[in-house]
Design a protein that fits this description.
By secondary structure, this protein is of the alpha+beta class. The chain has helices at 4-7, 15-30, 33-40, 53-65, 77-80, 111-120, 145-150, and strands spanning 83-88, 94-98, 128-132. The chain has seven helices and three strands; from the N terminus they run H-H-H-H-H-E-E-H-E-H.
């Protein structure tokens, strides 16, 4: 005896069910888009009160600076204390005052440009100006504790 499920023919819906189905389809197609979107997407979160996007950008600027190293010292220039000032204006232009470990540093011409290029690579930064300064003169006391630990200078 054949399986009953295989031998049954599909039944046509009754007219009332068919009409209800067609009405539901038509209503879904004519529903406003905003109603459909509200079901699919959560509302955009609002930034907290007092939020300044420049703070986040400045964190990324500092991270970019930390990718630059004095080739003679295996510590990044931020931890070495070679960066004296980092400012950003409302147009997201960055100004950096930096120094070198010595005026006779062999990378005096290259390191500021390396820093400039690293910071220019930060998303949302427009322009970068690097000023090489010599006052106050750099000394080992300007290094962070992390740098001193890396260089075994307790």
């Amino acid at each position: 005896m054949p399986d009953e499920a295989l031998t049954q023919r599909p039944m046509a819906p009754n007219p009332a069910e068919a009409e209800a189905h067609l009405k539901a389809q038509a209503a879904a197609e004519t529903a406003p888009e905003s109603a459909a979107e509200s079901k699919d997407f959560a509302p955009m979160p609002q930034p907290p009160e007092g939020y300044d996007p420049r703070e986040e950008i400045m964190d990324r600027v500092v991270a970019a600076i930390k990718t630059c190293y004095d080739p003679e010292i295996p510590v990044d220039i931020w931890e070495l204390g070679l960066i004296y000032r980092v400012d950003m204006d409302g147009q997201r232009n960055v100004e950096i005052d930096m120094t070198l470990t010595s005026p006779m540093c062999p990378v005096a011409g290259e390191l500021p440009e390396q820093v400039r290029q690293a910071v220019l690579g930060v998303e949302d930064v427009n322009e970068v100006k690097i000023e090489l300064v010599w006052e106050p003169p750099w000394h080992q006391g300007m290094m962070s504790e992390e740098a001193r630990l890396q260089l075994d200078m307790f």
